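Here is the promised in-class demo. Please do not try to memorize the tokens; focus on the logic of going from shape to residues.
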């Protein structure tokens, strides 16, 4: 019971410090933007009041010692500013210098506060993930963490991330089948945010760890969405890892599940693999019967052929006008296509896959030509009629020749 009270007291103390520092950060931000507000301004008053109480609030935490020093320097600068309110040139120059220094100190104060908040947040997240905290609280902390990391690179935050080994902790949660699906999915989203935060540091951990296998094994809409995000960030090396781990058949099998959202996200993932995949990955997809599955999806109620919409009729869409009229016509065509794809996510999916290979980064030019012919051959084998084969082949031929990307589903 004693330990519980001690932990509760520590948590309450941290909340008090956090609340004070949040207010202080806002005040320092105001002061940084307008350093000549005067000693009675609310921003300066808040900072100076905290400096007076620094011994009680800040001195107990060694991580806040520099903040205490900055506040002490701020008080000295403000006093100097008050003493240079004359109209002489010397007083004017002293005020300009003091205002500049006050703005600089306010910026340093804001940086120190953010660094403290980041350290506490990361430590709190790591301890909570394996603690007895409720699922809702864990989800809340993970969302907050993802939001903070997504704000962009910060050297101080990176130091906290590396010291806490937060990526490894999130990976453990992702791979733990005993954890709830929601927590595992939110952990995966946080990991993807870390990769975007600093690819140089975290890409290697993705490639060397079990992240990819865990995401594919979950097979949920969210986990495959994260996999798509990682493919976009890491590109061909991650596709190589997916192929070498034998995960491609599992991803293609998701095109046959009942959940439509998973099928659509799996289709997006396959398109990303097609764009970044090298020869071995594309061969694995074709050998798994991908083209036959895509033909079946295109034949379904959620499929269809964009060529039937007059997509490729240049004269009908653009006419012979010049300037804004052509642009407007093109915009109407793309808008119509985008709306159609919203309700028919597998429309022209064979041609959409073929063009990813054609414009993608993973294949050499001769490999692209060879795969195009192989795709056309497999289309003819998979179609149930000559008319169906002619339509799909026409789409593939046209779009791979013109290299026109399809409008993405919004």
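The designed amino acids, position by position:
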């Amino acid at each position: 019971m004693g330990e519980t009270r001690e932990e509760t007291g520590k948590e309450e103390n941290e909340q008090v410090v956090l609340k004070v520092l949040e207010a202080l950060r806002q005040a320092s931000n105001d002061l940084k933007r307008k350093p000549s507000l005067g000693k009675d301004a609310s921003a300066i008053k808040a900072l100076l009041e905290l400096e007076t109480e620094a011994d009680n609030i800040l001195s107990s935490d060694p991580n806040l010692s520099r903040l205490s020093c900055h506040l002490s320097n701020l008080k000295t600068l403000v006093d100097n500013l008050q003493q240079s309110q004359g109209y002489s040139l010397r007083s004017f120059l002293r005020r300009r210098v003091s205002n500049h220094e006050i703005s600089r100190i306010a910026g340093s104060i804001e940086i120190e506060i953010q660094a403290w908040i980041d350290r506490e947040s990361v430590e709190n997240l790591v301890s909570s993930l394996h603690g007895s905290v409720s699922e809702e609280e864990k989800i809340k902390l993970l969302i907050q963490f993802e939001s903070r990391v997504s704000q962009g690179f910060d050297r101080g935050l990176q130091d906290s991330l590396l010291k806490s080994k937060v990526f490894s902790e999130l990976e453990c949660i992702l791979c733990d089948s005993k954890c709830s699906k929601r927590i595992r999915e939110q952990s995966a989203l946080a990991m993807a945010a870390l990769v975007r935060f600093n690819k140089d540091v975290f890409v290697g951990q993705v490639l060397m760890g079990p992240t990819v296998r865990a995401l594919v094994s979950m097979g949920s809409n969210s986990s495959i969405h994260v996999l798509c995000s990682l493919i976009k960030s890491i590109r061909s090396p991650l596709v190589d890892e997916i192929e070498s781990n034998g995960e491609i058949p599992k991803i293609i099998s998701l095109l046959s599940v009942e959940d439509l959202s998973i099928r659509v996200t799996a289709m997006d993932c396959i398109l990303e693999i097609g764009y970044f995949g090298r020869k071995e990955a594309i061969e694995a997809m074709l050998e798994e019967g991908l083209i036959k599955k895509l033909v079946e999806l295109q034949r379904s109620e959620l499929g269809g052929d964009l060529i039937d919409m007059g997509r490729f009729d240049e004269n009908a869409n653009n006419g012979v006008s010049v300037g804004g009229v052509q642009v407007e016509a093109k915009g109407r065509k793309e808008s119509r296509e985008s709306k159609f794809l919203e309700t028919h996510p597998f429309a022209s999916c064979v041609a959409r896959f073929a063009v990813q290979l054609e414009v993608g980064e993973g294949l050499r030019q001769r490999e692209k030509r060879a795969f195009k012919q192989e795709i056309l051959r497999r289309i003819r084998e998979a179609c149930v009629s000559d008319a169906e084969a002619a339509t799909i082949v026409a789409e593939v031929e046209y779009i791979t020749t013109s290299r026109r990307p399809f409008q993405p589903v919004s």
